[in-house]
Amino acid sequence: MSAQPGSGPILVYTQRLLAQMLAHLSQQSVWALDTESNSLYSYYPKVCLIQISAPADHGDDPLAVVDYLVDPLRITNLEGLGKVLANPAVEVVMHAAENDMLLLHRSFGIHFGRVFDTQLAARILGWSQVGLAAILEEQFGVVSDKRMQRTNWGKRPLTPQQIAYAQMDTHYLLALRQQLIEELQARGRWDEAQDAFDHLAKNNYADRVTEERSFWQMKCARQLPPGHLAVLEALWLWREDQARQQNRPPFKIITDAELADLATALPATSAALRDVVSLGERHQERYGADLLRIIAEARHRPPPSPPDATLRPEQTLEKAALNRYDALRKWRSERALARGVAPDIVLNNATLLQIAQRRPTTPQDLEQVADIGAWKMHTYGPEILAILQSMK
What we know:
Distance between the termini: 65 Å
Oligomer: single chain
Strand content: 5-15%
Strand order of the largest sheet: 1-4-3-2-5-6
CATH class of the largest domain: Alpha Beta
CATH architecture of the largest domain: 2-Layer Sandwich
Radius of gyration: 25 Å
Number of helices: 17
Structural class: alpha/beta
Number of domains: 3
Number of strands: 6
């Protein structure tokens, strides 16, 4: 069966249907994958849909594919899918792969043997538009329904609009992969892309701890006067507790802007609370008493001390290492401009920081730095070592 735009995908919601899909996938060496989660509707987000597009059993047309929508809310055993994803003989095509890989590992313990990231490939080529919606419109004339970006993927049954949107996320990825391969090879960037994809697949997602939530992550926490921070922290903690109890995203309890306005105004009465313009009437009625109590209790507390994590990484460097970091950033900017790519495609800030701190003096030393793959070592290694040598 070949699913074309306008025809429906195969809905996989039982173990029997999953087995049929896996039988098809086991015969393929490349197929595409994407996921949808309910992060806009839940405090504890989870993978709610897995989209897969695999070549049809006939012809070489990359658009002749079978589209599947796998429902992990109804299928609890995805061990078989995990096995085929971990097979290094299979190339799994994704767009902006890292987040999907992380979510699938955390949710189901899934690992990937080999990946092709179409967004990363587009960035290595210096494409100006690298979002999937923009690429689909430019390359294939497909316009995505942007309303579906904020839909609730955890709700069942899925609507026809959700199904159509989800299908398009993977339907064209195999054809896009073919276009990218041809351009990467034509422009001499194929080895660079392969090295980057290999690094993605080798990432140890088990080491990626869930980022601890902190009120310092709010932009307003760095803008309020110190005397108001204790109230902001208390309000933030209350909102987190409410979000957990209701299993809703914190911003759907009260927004960051509303918390900032409350911490700035410090209302002490119901009348003063009503003067906080950004706070809606519904929130005042539902949470007003709690908010006034929290503000009254926290307004005289000493301000919390910012954690080290709020510092920019370069602020932790000693002067000599900072000078090396600045020199490496300047070199990276020039290199990226000459190649027509974003600076992090050359090397990201975390890698430059490691180099600046370790100050490697030999190729062997430099190879020990994370994210320095074979291609980047060969291409940029001598230049990096020369910069460091000149700064002794």
